[in-house]
Design brief:
The protein has one domain (about 30-190): Rossmann fold (3-Layer(aba) Sandwich), CATH 3.40.50.150. Helix 3 crosses helix 4. It is α/β, with parallel strands linked by helices. The mean pLDDT is about 90. The protein is built from seven helices and seven strands; from the N terminus they run H-H-H-E-H-E-H-E-E-H-E-H-E-E. About 35% of the residues lie in helices and about 25% in strands.
Amino acid sequence: MISKAVKLQETSSFIREWLKSPLVTASVVPSSRRLARKMVRGLHAGMGQVIELGPGTGVFTRELLAIGIPESALVLIELNGRFAADLKQKYPAATVVNGAAEAMSHLQLKRAGAVVSGLPFLSMKDRQIDAILEAAFQVLEQDGVFVQFTYGHRCPVRREILERHRLFSSRDSFVLNNFPPASVYHLKRKP
């Protein structure tokens, strides 16, 4: 369990980064533990490497570790330099990349069982989402899953983009007691 002091420190760090760049950080506070639990539901240690996009202060990362994903199987891709440096210190066995999610296919990664995304798709342009999904599904196993949350009322990936990549989306859960309330979607390749 995370201490109140650590949670306060992470929240204040998140607020500072949001003030610097609100479209990149996208939320004024980190995601709740309830949302984090929903984001990792169905994932397990046997799925091999797991890539996390936009881990921020590590809310989802902690839940991935809590369900048994080994730290050494985590690839954390974070655009914010401060967050990336903090993640390297907190999770030395994980691979931490300070860079854009679109570049993940150029990192020579092992095949991943899942991509867990904390990226603010609602504030991104379609071409950027398209590039992220292209890169993600190049490194995902054939039956791998891309897990994405959104504050919107529908899947944050437009139907045209899903169809271009031959993907389907399903709403896995809704978390009312997150600020703001959020839905979790799973994106997979069509059979």
